[in-house]
Design goal:
Two copies of one chain form a homodimer. Chain A is mainly alpha-helical. Chain A has nine helices and no strands. Chain A is elongated, with a radius of gyration of 20 Å. Chain A starts with 11 loop residues before the first helix and ends with a helix. The structure holds a DNA duplex.
Amino acid sequence: MSAMPDVKHFDEAEVLTAVEQLFWRRGSAATGIQDVVTATGLSRSSLYNAFGGKDDLYAAAARRYLEHRSRPMFDRLAADGRGLIAVRSFFDELLRLRCSGEYAGWGCMMANAIAETPPESVRAVLSEHHAVLRKSLAAALTIAQGNGELRSGVDVQGAAEMLTLLAYAINLRSRAGATRAQLRSAVTAALDALAV
Amino acid sequence: MSAMPDVKHFDEAEVLTAVEQLFWRRGSAATGIQDVVTATGLSRSSLYNAFGGKDDLYAAAARRYLEHRSRPMFDRLAADGRGLIAVRSFFDELLRLRCSGEYAGWGCMMANAIAETPPESVRAVLSEHHAVLRKSLAAALTIAQGNGELRSGVDVQGAAEMLTLLAYAINLRSRAGATRAQLRSAVTAALDALAV
DNA sequence: TAAATCTTGGATCGATCGTTCCAAGATATG
DNA sequence: CATATCTTGGAACGATCGATCCAAGATTTA
């Protein structure tokens, strides 16, 4: 067998985390390759060699956001068998994430991306993001309905779509500076309206 | 008195409409001054002389969007004394605007702008946009409550905030390709949950 | 250690970015 | 019509855009 080549001098996942945060906070159009170079310490060669062009990098960062940030939350919601309280907990965590801590005011990378006319590779991630959230909410609401926690006549699928949209709007408005209390009043209104 | 200067050779409002649509559809970061020059037929000199730099142009376009697109709809909602049916009509019109016709898939310029880290001058417009919509929805809901159309115990202010967020999310998701039927199911779920 | 091969730094590409500038054009007053 | 003053077209600015290229560096196998 012939001699083996050199190996990468950096941790791909670690770099992708930094890139994810750049695109998350400022979007793709407002983030230059130079910003990525500066933030990661990598050279252009390494970047293009490892990830391809800017759109590929954007798509990889979006994919990572979905899998590492969104999916765990959504899966926890779907696996939480408590019914309506599971939904309340989900929104509590969302409000906490969006309005306090390290990422306060950043919104959701998926929601932000929608306003950006993203490349097709990213649109696929966004579509998956929406589907997973909706499905998780529907699962929790189905349990709530089985528990008799919902008003009679509530359409679980419609309610799931409505709460999915509510989550998107929370993401957006938190970026615009909406307070946690203001956003929580909307969550309370929605859930109280669904409950018996 | 001394001689008078030349006058503008174009209609400022007309130009601003074209600029508004550029920024609305593609956002600020993805729209170059060259795009504005091409779309309006003006020269750079005329643009900078009339409107100032890009951020000023963006702010002027946002202001125009608020006053000419959003405000008329919101005012109609606020002046519609029918109660809950007024709210339904508002969302019907919103769905029609976002999912069909000339501007289908464009979303709402105000919602799109939030994801862009807009300059302070634009943030002021966004803040006003939110306040006006919320107030109009609250007015309609107050009438609905007076009509006995709402469930007992519904907090009108919280419900108004919730429906405001729903409108934002409709704007966003319509841009991502959500169907009118899907979005309508969310509206129906929200309004049915509030109604007696 | 020599060879093979991938990775890396960094210069560089043409294109486009937002903005400025100036001479030429246009218009209302005197 | 002469004059003053604004507007306009269009060249040009330095900076940055995303992307490419190549020589030098690094690493594993033989």
